[in-house]
Amino acid sequence: MNGSNVDIDWESARRANHENWNDRVPLHEVAYGLDRYDDPAHLSDVVRADLPVLERFLPEQSLRGLDLCHLQCHIGTDTVSLARAGANVTGVDFSGPALTVADALAARAGVQARWVETDVLDARRAVDREFDVVYTSIGTITWLEDLNRWAEQIHGLLRPGGIFYIRDGHPALYALDEEAPDLKTRYPYFGDGRAQLWDDPSTYVGEGRVEHSRTYEWPHPLSEIIGALLAHGLRLVHFDEGRTLPWQFSPRMVEVAGGYAWAESERDLIPCTYTIVAQRDS
């Protein structure tokens, strides 16, 4: 059943995913090590990796004083980290329980943050301002069926001259069989409009199990991701591919500085992440 292509309408898939992500919140509240944010200098590993790239494309190479919208922010660890890097942050997520934890984390960490509960595909309507930066990172857009609608939200949230940043798992990586003894393609790289059905009570971090284990994701090739952004008025200013992940995609991955990677003999064979920076010119 896992990874099989199924016909399902967006609202039904979204409802199942919403239940699953709500179930993850108490597990991640424990597994994410939120007490580390009691140290005012602590940043999440994700943001620590993203900042050197993102800030290259910002005025004065800094987030300080800029308005930033973090899409699919989950329990806010990256959002709080971006606030600590100087941004005025608004976190957007469809899980109310996740935003409750995020709000408590921000208060505990002593940072100002604003939270908006909405689907990312309705973000422009729900968020009543524009931003210098729209940010999303790691494990995000496979949960979305319609990338054209996604890119439309990003364009609408950005001020002219604003920057969009994404780092996410590479679609070529997601096509691999994570259990195979070698690098072997199992799942589609190109989508056909159908969702991939997964039934797994575990999450990517921690030991607990979720009650609602069934989720739906959509494969999106790089051509679709970049094409959607270009079609909605964004200009590509940076593209890169990486060899490490902040989570262990496969049991065969080994721990390295900055996360996980394939064994050294395979590390140059397949990308693990891609990074895109795009700008709204008008």
Labels describing this entry:
282 residues; alpha/beta; 7-stranded mixed sheet; 12 strands; globular
| Corresponding CATH architecture | 3-Layer(aba) Sandwich
Strand content: 15-25%
Shape label: globular
The percent of residues in helical segments reads 25-40%
- Low-pLDDT runs: none
Total of DSSP H or I helical runs spanning 4+ residues: 8
Number of strands: 12
**C-alpha-based Rg, rounded:** 18 Å
Give a short summary of the structure.
The protein is of the alpha/beta class and 282 residues long. The chain has helices spanning 10-31, 45-54, 77-84, 96-109, 123-126, 147-157, 171-174, 222-231; strands at residues 4-6, 67-71, 88-93, 113-117, 131-137, 158-169, 195-199, 214-217, 234-242, 254-256, 259-261, 273-280.
Helix/strand layout:
Layout (H helix, E strand, L loop, with lengths): L3 E3 L3 H22 L13 H10 L12 E5 L5 H8 L3 E6 L2 H14 L3 E5 L5 H4 L4 E7 L9 H11 E12 L1 H4 L20 E5 L14 E4 L4 H10 L2 E9 L11 E3 L2 E3 L11 E8 L2
Parallel strand pairs: 2-3, 2-5, 3-4, 5-6
Antiparallel strand pairs: 1-7, 6-12, 7-8, 9-12, 10-11
Helix pairs in contact: 1-4, 6-8
How would you portray this structure in words?
Helices cover 29% and strands 25% of the residues. The chain is globular, with a radius of gyration of 18 Å. The chain has helices at 10-31, 45-54, 77-84, 96-109, 123-126, 147-157, 171-174, 222-231; strands at 4-6, 67-71, 88-93, 113-117, 131-137, 158-169, 195-199, 214-217, 234-242, 254-256, 259-261, 273-280. The model has no long low-confidence stretch (mean pLDDT 96). By secondary structure, the protein is an alpha/beta fold. The chain has a single domain (4-280), classed as Vaccinia Virus protein VP39 (Rossmann fold), CATH 3.40.50. The longest helix has 22 residues, at 10-31. Helix 1 runs parallel beside helix 4 and helix 6 crosses helix 8 (222-231). Helix 4 (96-109) links the parallel strand 3 and strand 4. The protein is built from 8 helices and 12 strands.
